[in-house]
Every structure is written in C-alpha cells, then in structure tokens.
Amino acid sequence: MPGRYYDEWKEGDRVAHALRRTVTETDNLLISTLTHNPQPLHLDAEAAAETEFGRILVNSCFTFSLLVGASVADTTEGVLVANLGFDEVRLPSPVFIGDTLHFESSCLSKRESKSRATAGLVTWEHRAINQRGQTVCTMKRTALIQKAPAA
C-alpha cells in the first residue's frame, strides 16, 4: 500500500511523482472518442492546423485524468474512502501529442472528518508539467482518507 494514511500527511508535504508519461495520438483519440467529444481541434489535423496552435491539441480531459491517476500511488492508493471534490482546475498551457509530462502534489490542508472517526479530509494541489517546464494543468483535490489502524 503506497498511499499515506490521513495521520501521515502534514500541510506543506510535497511529492514529486515518479511517473513520467509521453502523450500519444492514441491517448488523445481514445479519450475523445470514449467521451463522445467530436471537437475538430482534438481530432482533425487539417482543422487544427488552421488554429493559432497550428496542430492538434490534446483533449484536456485526458490531461486532467492523467494528472489525477499519476498522483494516486503516492497519495490515496489503498487508503482512499472517496474523492470528495476537484476544484480550481486550470489549464494554463496546451498539451500536444509527443509532450512528456511529469507530476507533483502538495498537501494544502487536512482536517478531521465530522462524520467518520476513522478518516479525515486531505486537500492537495496537483500539477502537471511538460518537458519545457510549463505547467499544463493544476487542480485541487479533496479526498476522505483512512486513518492508520490502531496499534
């Protein structure tokens, strides 16, 4: 179980996630078709070439989901009760096919659960950064996390 119990988090804790991922055309095609998103900017190279970007933009739903997934091993794997919210999602720079992303998380806050004595709420800021050092996605995630079992 690589995730951390509620008790193990402190405000200000930072994690550089080991996972790095190069985004492929297949990634973009799959997320766009699975979510029924026909946006030409994601699927039509000719139409995308005529935009200010000059090429296909990766669907932001993929970037968001990849960022969440990349954080799981170090944050919530094996200790998650439930994700409670994703807030302030920002996409300050575009992601293109072939970009390689890495991921970081910081613990912003934590508090005891009012309804569950065995869990607490942790809020993180998650960040995805491309190979050029540009932040491509940020978000806050709040999750209900198990407390460590009593010894």
TrEMBL record:
InterPro entries named in the record:
HotDog_dom_sf, MaoC-like_dom, MCH/BMMD
> MaoC-like domain: from which residue to which, for each copy?
12-116
The lineage's top-level taxon is Bacteria
Question: One Pfam family, short name please?
Answer: MaoC_dehydratas
> PANTHER family this protein is in?
BETA-METHYLMALYL-COA DEHYDRATASE, MONOAMINE OXIDASE-RELATED
* Name of the protein this chain belongs to: MaoC family dehydratase
- Species for this entry: Sphingomonas humi
Q: What is the lineage of its organism?
A: Bacteria, Pseudomonadati, Pseudomonadota, Alphaproteobacteria, Sphingomonadales
